[in-house]
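Can't paste images in this forum, so I'm doing it all in text. The chain is below; anyone willing to post the predicted structure tokens underneath?
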Amino acid sequence: MRVLVCGSIGYGGIEEIRRLQRFLRERGYDVLDQLVVDYSDVEDFRDKPGLWDEIVKRDLEFCGKADVIVLIATNPSFGAMAEVVVSAMKGKPIVAFCPKEVKSPWPLYFSTAVAKSEEELLKFLESVKIRKIRTIPNVYGRHEAEFVYSDFTCICPVTGRRDYAKIRIRYRPRNRLIEYESLDEYFKSFRNRAMHHEAVVEKIFNDLIEVLNPEWLEVVAEFEERSGVRAVVRKTSPSHDYGHVERVKRMAVHIAEKEGADLKVVEKAAELHDVARDMPNHAVESAKVAERILREEGCDEDFIAKVVHCIEAHSFSSGVEPKTIEAKVLSDADKLDAMGAIGVARAFMFSGERGRSIEETLRHFEEKLLKLKDLMFTETAKKIAEERHEFMLEFYRRLKKELEEP
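Text version of the structure:
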């Protein structure tokens, strides 16, 4: 792994760059040395176009060669920040190394991870994977994007023959975007793998969830006709979209304020509680993804442990008992979003996704939704649940009556 250390050369930080370079080399990393020209004593570049041209082009060349950028973020220069932005927009991992206070949000926003000590820096570098799907910071706000890849191929595990497909990816991003040129390399990794059509879509969907944590995602694979059958496989989950996450977050904050819970823990847990929603045992898998995200953000271990427990214990069916007030708050907020008018709407959205009948949806009311009122932990949630339960029960009775009418 080739590492480039960026920092403030022209503002007195060259010795810190050299010290960190030595530290990483001594631990076996291939550290690129951009300090061929020491311009720390140059007071004014205005009359030195040849020098500024040489320095900038050389530094950008080093950025291109590096696998990971380590930014000394406590006092970054304009040049170091430019190197980080350029590298981040190409999907390279950026580590903000900040053993002291950081008084600007910019270096942190464009970083993949925050390291507050040399130990944390080494921990991140040891765990970093040069992923086939690269991502870049989202500097374009809320939008929806679609990518189409027409040259996908893999091996049929039944016949051993080659399958061909067109892959469509639609998503609504949060903080990270797909660096779309990396998709070609990623899709080529399937070329010699024996996979069923459904397994292909499942793998792509889960890989994108892990690196993007998007608001919403859909993956569609349109396979060429084989044995007279043309297969189209789609995976998405609109009933657990970002609207659900936002509602749970608002409700969790409301309950937390009433119950005296830690708002920061509750907010972060709510934001990440369904990040791996479409994986089996989603609460446990979401907790694993959240732990990785929080560690890359530089959160302390105690905070991470509290958030992870909240996520592990939030699900109605996970079987994990919430042990903290924050975990109980998140669990209650998540259950409340399955109750009342919203709960009814989501139940039928979920049934529509899976082709369930009205009668099958009513059984879902009987087996789960109408039992939620008695599963609340906090007094605040119990009061809200009473009203929502009554609405849901009335709807259930009315719908059941109409289904039984001649």
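The longest helix spans residues 379-404. The chain has three domains: 2-130, 137-236, 242-400.
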